Amino acid sequence: MEEPERQEGVGTPDAFERLWTPHRMAYILGENKPRGSGAGDGCPFCEIPEHDDAEGLVVRRGAVTYAVLNLYPYNPGHLMICPYRHVADYTDLTREETLELGELTGQAMTALRTASHAGGFNIGINQGPVAGAGIAAHLHQHVVPRWGGDTNFMPVVGRTKVLPQLLRDTRELVAGAWPAP
User: Fold this and answer.
1) How many domains does the chain have?
2) How would you class 99 by CB atoms within 10 Å of its CB: exposed for 0-12, middle for 13-18, buried for 19 or more?
3) Catalytic residue selected from 78, 86, 138, 140
4) pTM of the model
5) 142 counts as catalytic
6) Is residue 10 part of a domain?
7) Quick check: is 11 in a domain?
8) How far apart, in whole angstroms, are the C-alpha atoms of residue 21 and residue 49?
């Protein structure tokens, strides 16, 4: 069978399959990033708590911090623990914020183990733009569940993550597994 004629450089076979993820363009283009460093400059971490939990993907609300699913997750169930207060630096957290950030982190681990049998976690804060913070003006701690073999050929070779569940479904699952205070 004869191969159809193709335009130069457009759809030229190269032995690679493509997994298109156009929704990631919002992240790449910075559509959800704040316009400035102030609390009123479109900070998503300040705006999220104003929505209901399902719309904002909030999994748990504490007195001074909250847990929310990451819109651009590294793995399914990737949560962030954020103070309600617009604060950039860990050293500027109040004692109450520091304690509750730790408490919600432990609760998040318990919920993710229950909901998805996570075998481990990457937990951390990218403090400042040079450390990789996408939104440096509002502190947020990542809680990323991990499983044996979750770093397979897709992210390593294909530089693509495959997420098996919609974020709203993940939020429902993790919120339902969150331990009682």
Assistant:
1) 1
2) middle
3) 140
4) 0.73
5) no
6) no
7) no
8) 27
